[in-house]
Specification:
Archaeosine Trna-guanine Transglycosylase, Chain: A, domain 4, 7 strands, 35% strand, globular, UCP032025, DUF1489 family protein
Length: 145
Amino acid sequence: MALNLVKLCVGCSAIEELAAWIDFKLDERRRAGLPAEQFHTTRMVPKRVEELLDGGSLYWVIKGNVQCRQRLTDIRTFTDDEGTSRCHLVLDPRIIPTEWQPRRAFQGWRYLTSEDAPFDEGRGKIGRAKLPPELRNELAALGLL
């Protein structure tokens, strides 16, 4: 069974903002002549790499709720210019909306088992992803989603 990660998507208020940021970064890499791959850099290196890469995903917490995920394709460690060990969580750029799952703020990332992960959108409540982002966020803030 795959193991997942969950992480706060800081500075992002909707899935659409995350998608726009990913598109921008991929386009930026293409223009620079670099491979068009999306990754998230983190300081802590996961210890359970094999389990994560066996079908695992990075679940994004946006505005206090897990709202979407991206499949993990690789985890690459490296040392930055200051000598600090870091890693790139290489992600499939496709965003998969999920059922919303409340999460309190935390630092870094956390492991998330498949049993505790929210279902992909459509496997439970249908239609939430089709609401405009502003309405979706307002309904969630009111506790109606």
